[in-house]
Amino acid sequence: MSAPAPKRQKTSTSSPPYELLYWPGIPGRGEHIRLCFEETGTPYKDVCNADKAGMAELRELISPENIGDKINPPALAPPVLKHGDLLISQVPNITLYLAPKLGLAGSEDDENAIYHINQLALTALDGLSNEAHDTHHPIAVGAYYEDQKEEAKKKAKDYVENRVPKFVGYFERVLQGEASKGGEWLYGGQLTFADLVFWQCLDGVTFAFPKAIQELKKSGKYERVFALYDKVKERERIKAYLDSDRRKDYSMGIWRHYPELDAGSS
Q1: pTM of structure
Q2: Could you tell me if 196 and 31 are in contact, meaning their C-beta atoms sit under 8 angstroms apart?
Q3: Alpha-carbon torsion angle 95, 115, 170, 186, nearest 10
Q4: If 0-12 CB within 10 Å is exposed, 13-18 middle and 19+ buried, where does residue 167 land?
Q5: Within 13 A of 94's CA, how many CA atoms are on the CB side?
Q6: What is the C-alpha to C-alpha distance for residues 166 and 221, in angstroms, rounded to an integer?
Q7: What is the pLDDT of residue 263?
Q8: What is the mean pLDDT of the chain?
C-alpha cells in the first residue's frame, strides 16, 4: 500500500511565499526543491522560469560584487531559496530547511530521522549528481565538453561500470534494511525528501546513461530501487507535475546524454 501524501505544517495566510531561483529551462539541481513543493502541493514561485526578470535577480544574487546583507551571506551559485527575509543556497541546505515544514522529514516521534534522511539524500547527490556531472567535464568545468572528450570517455566508462552500480546497490541495501520499515521507502516506512532527491538523481542518470541503467534493470539485482522509482513517478502530484510544462526537459545541465559515454560505447 502506498503511503499517503505528506501532511504540511499549518501556516498562516500571512506566511511569506517560497521563491526558488535557478537556471531556467532545465531541471538541474533546482529540481530536487521543485519536487518537494510539487509532492506536497506547496505553492511556490519558480522565479527564473516565471518571467525574464528572474534571471536579472539571480545574476545579482550570485554576482562577485554581492557581499550579502545584514543577515544573509551571499550565494555562490543557484539554487537559491527565498522565504521572507531568509535567503539560503545549496540543495542539501534548502531541503533540510524545507523538509520539516512540508512534512518530508519522517516521523515526528523519531528525533534522529532527519539526520538519517539527510544522509541518504547527500549520498544520492554525491554519486548520482555530482559524479554524473564529472563524466562530461572531468578536467575543467569551464571548458567545453569537446575539449575534454577523450578524458570524458575514460571517466564515464569507470562511472557506468563501477560507480553507478555501487551507488544503486547501496540504495538497494538501504531498502532491504530494517530502518526502511518495509522496503517501500528509504527510511521510516514513509516518503521523505530523500526519496525525492534519489528519484531525481536516478531519473537524471537514466537520461544520461540509458543503456547502463537498462543493464542494471535486466540484472534483477536492484528490484527494490526500481520499484521505488516507479512508485515516486506514479504519485498523483508528481505524475501531474511530470506531465506539465513546469517540468523542463533535460538538456545541457548536470545530466547530459552523450551516446559515446554510455555503456557499451567504447
Answers
A1: 0.93
A2: no
A3: -70
A4: buried
A5: 28
A6: 12
A7: 83
A8: 94
Position 230 scores a pLDDT of 98
Residues recorded for the chain: 266
State the pLDDT at residue 12.
Answer: 47
**Quick check: bond before 79 cis, omega within 30?**
yes
State residue 264's pLDDT score: 72
For the chain, the three-class secondary structure string (H helix, E strand, C coil) is CCCCCCCCCCCCCCCCCEEEECCCCCCCCHHHHHHHHHHHCCCEEEHHHHCCHHHHHHHHHCCCCCCCCCCCCCCCCCCEEEECCEEEECHHHHHHHHHHHHCCCCCCCCCCHHHHHHHHHHHHHHHHHHHHHHHHCCCCCCCCHHHHHHHHHHHHHHHHHHHHHHHHHHHHHHHHCHHHCCCCCCECCECCHHHHHHHHHHHHHHHHCHHHHHHHHHHCCCHHHHHHHHHHHCCHHHHHHHCCCCCCCCCCCCCCCCHHHCCCCC
Residue 71 to residue 60: CA distance in whole angstroms: 17
With cell 544574487, the residue in question is 61
At residue 2, the pLDDT reads 46
Q: How far apart are CA 192 and CA 100, in angstroms?
A: 10
Q: Which residues of the chain have pLDDT under 50?
A: 1-3, 8, 10-12
pLDDT in tens, 53-101: 999 999 999 999 999 999 999 999 999 999 999 999 999 999 999 999 9
